[in-house]
# Entry
Amino acid sequence: MKRKISAIAVCAATLSFLCACTGKNTIILPDRNDPSSKSDSVSFFGHRTDSASLNVIEDALQSFMSENANVNVSYESASETSYFSALDKRFATRNLDDVFMTDRDRLLSFMNSSALADISSDVNLNYFSDFALSQSALADGALYAVPTAVSTHGLYVNYGILQNSGISVPKNLSDFAAACDYFKDQGVTPVIVNNYSSLRTLIYAIAFDKTYKSADVSAEISKFNAEATLMCDGLNDGIDFIYRMIGSGWIDLEEAKNCECFSGDIQLFSKNGRPFMITGSYAVTSLKRISDGISFGIYPYPVLETGSVLVAQADAILSVKDGERADSAKKLVNKLTQYSVLSQMSEGQGYFSVLKEQTQIQADAALVPSASHFTGGKFVVASDVNLKIPLDSYLNECTDMILNGAKSQEVKAHLYSLLEKEGAK
# Structure
């Protein structure tokens, strides 16, 4: 019988790993420097906590250990909203796990500190899509990080509410504004947003639409790397749109301030009383599990006068800490990036695949409305690895200010000061 792992961690009792669990999210491994130990103990820290992902990881790790009898592996997971703060603490205390998931902003710090091992000989990039390749951290012939899934961000639409109201799915800003105003007039705050990613990805959508439609995206990104304040005009347009939504009553600022991603937002949407929600595609499986048969789909953001724009982001990005267990950790990454594992990491879980010609939408009907945008290249990249500026962190500061009642000009001034400092580095 297949052994299960919990949504918190892979423990000794579950996967026969040589580790012990203490506390809700903690795994303690045996002393790795104990000379009496005959095996390598490799730790893996990630933010994939859904049961489907954990089953895939469990199978991959069990297979890996059967092939590498001298290596024991532990997997610890935390939800994304808490994962990255934990990762920051581990990096600051020189306690990074041997294999871990990261993001663009942290990759910049890790690569600059020479904390990462080169995994170019351990990952077969030949079956990765162009998007996945563009979001892999390559430098001077070395590979330091590779994505294992693609998440998208868009507008969740409750089909039943729109149909009962005689409103079509909005395709552009005019449609979206008219729909939001209609529901506002009916006493319904139309759009649910969380306090983690919603506002940030909306800003990305508006700020970088022209960048990713340009004939030479790389050249445009290079301009921003050379002079970060060049991004201000587009980012300010995105900030203005957030304030328009607040001022028009399309979102409830107090609700948004307290609305947690992965939980609060989908709980509100599942009550079947709100037409729209803004969050990532990764919420699909959880929403289906808690909702009572709500019919919904995820659409590109209808925030442009001329149409809509999808936001795509490399997800579950794997890196290896450089150190004494790097060789064993690289072997584990080789297992985790094999074709069969990568295929399963997206199937039915709200993600698009990093594999060539595999969008993985057959089991995710909710993704179908946005699939043509992704496969057709009609999207903006959030956290683009080629942008050497920690923009997610900066936008998080700005959206926190917005949620806490700051004025538009205060937010824009703060953003400018952050980007201006990039030029002084």
